Amino acid sequence: MSSVYKQIYKSLLYEKATVSVLFFLSCLGSFMYFFVQVSIDGNLTHLTYKKAMALTINSSEKEFLIALHSNQILATTFLIILSLIAAFAFYMFYKKYYRNHIKEIGCYKAFGYSNKQIIVVVFFITSSLSFIALIVGFVLGWIFSDVLLQLYRSSFDIELLHKGIFPSNIGIGFLFIVVLSGIMAIVPYYKFLKLEPSSLLRNFPEEHQNKWEVFINHKLSHVAPVKYRSSLRMILRKPFTVALIFLSVGFFTVLWIISISLNFSSQYIFETQTLGRSYKYDIQLDDYQPYHPLKGDSTFYLSSEVGISWKENVINQQAIGFHKKPNLFQLYTLDNKELFLPKDKEVYINEALSELYGIRQNDFIDILVNNKNYTVKVAAIVKNAEINTIYLSETQLARILSLNEPIYNGVLSNTIPKEYQNELIITEKERLALLQKNNVSNRISAVINQLLGCVTGCLLLYLVILLNFQECTRNILILNMLGYTAKSINKMLISIYKPLMNVAFVIMLPLSIIVCQFIQKKLSIETGDYIPFQTNLIIIGGIWLLLNLLYHLIQLRFNNKVANIQTTEQTKKYIM
């Protein structure tokens, strides 16, 4: 069995570039998981201990605890998505590897080695590679988790923070990264289980297309331009290869779109939260006050925590009712039209409610206060609404709260009246500083996700295209020996991949956008932070250019490899 191990190990060493990509993908999944998880577990243990010992937990620590649970979802999401991408990559590689080394497998069987022994060797080598990647990712994640801890300090004003990891979470990482990669390495081997050594030594029998595959192949090849028809007909004989290209382009597009969207969404939130506001002070009172005239340019408002019932969901919101149309805070619709005060039995909702829960203009929703329902009509969706806030008229909100009107518990003003100097006052400077801090924090997270998406997407696409190019190596060398020029060979075997990849991009783009919208919607609901989806034609065009640039770089590397084989007289080794 040791001889089989040595032979398979040596054959994998010849695939250094591809194996390095697989190692990096596994390492990336491990790093991103432990990068987030290490910053969670130690602090979660500390705060849970304080609660168990009935020690006081201040408001910042309560918010921090909620954030830790939200980041737990983020860490699990990172692990699942990146592990599935790595598993997909391992499956692609080993499917090609077994096909290219079919004679070696036949020799192992001829010498008396069983399928079980071969599978054990492959599983052990692959799992060992992934285990090393797990350890490297864990160490790097532990080191760089200081970045997240620093973000926690700036966001929650908590100095004493801890690193840590639960053994169970290490086990989960081991299961997803090490065991899953080992399983995906042996799954493609199932085709060889019942084949005799003699069949393998004569090369794997080609799979015959059924009549429907032949029909589709014929129709699609005739749709293509004349210069691509023969090449397309050849590649369509391998539907799995075409499916891999479409899936890899889809992954690439999803990862790039969502990473850029996360970056742009933080800026969008900052802009909408500063739009239409010209007050310097938000004065929040502890008790309700009867209305009385104020000097200067000030606006009263009434606010209260309420629930919104919509399609079996109860959503907590803050309801605000203005006494009159505020001069210091102008509300805008999504198409930037000015809004006046809502009428009786009408409500203005924020954009997050519309996007996350599907509440549209002219829908009817129930406002829940003290176990009572009040049905109102959605008159408009406010672009620049306060986070988790809906707007009603002050008289209507007072009636819902069973208060004598007119009454208020908040004031927007450019001055601070003497009677309110001891109340809670949020200044314009403090509000902008908090928004800027959140914006910077979100941007750092977005940059991390952007780097993750870029690297993962590029590596995955690199792996798929390179594996398909490598499958053409033998045919390229044979055609070269027959006297065909490099230009003719490229036209017959390689050039088809570029238009096929661009067609895949066009087809997968709408699906990728839908997937990105779904992911951001679920993240917004789970974390409680609205992440609006942001993209445009310039972003899509940039991703398309990057896709083609990456293709040309991979093609250049492959051409150099083939040229090196020819100059070092290794052609015989590849075509035998």
From TrEMBL:
Family matches, as InterPro entries: ABC3_permease_C, Membrane_comp_ABC_pdt
Membrane topology: Multi-pass membrane protein
GO cellular component terms given for this protein: plasma membrane
Ranges of residues in domain ABC3 transporter permease C-terminal: 77-197
Keywords (A to Z) from UniProt: Cell membrane, Membrane, Transmembrane, Transmembrane helix
Organism superkingdom: Bacteria
Subcellular location: Cell membrane
Transmembrane segments: 21-40, 73-94, 118-144, 164-190, 239-258, 447-469, 500-520, 532-551
Family annotation (Pfam families): FtsX
Main location: membrane
Record flagged with keyword Membrane: yes
PANTHER family: BLL1001 PROTEIN, MEMBRANE COMPONENT OF PREDICTED ABC SUPERFAMILY METABOLITE UPTAKE TRANSPORTER
Protein name stated in the entry: ABC transporter permease
Lineage: Bacteria, Bacillati, Bacillota, Bacilli, Bacillales
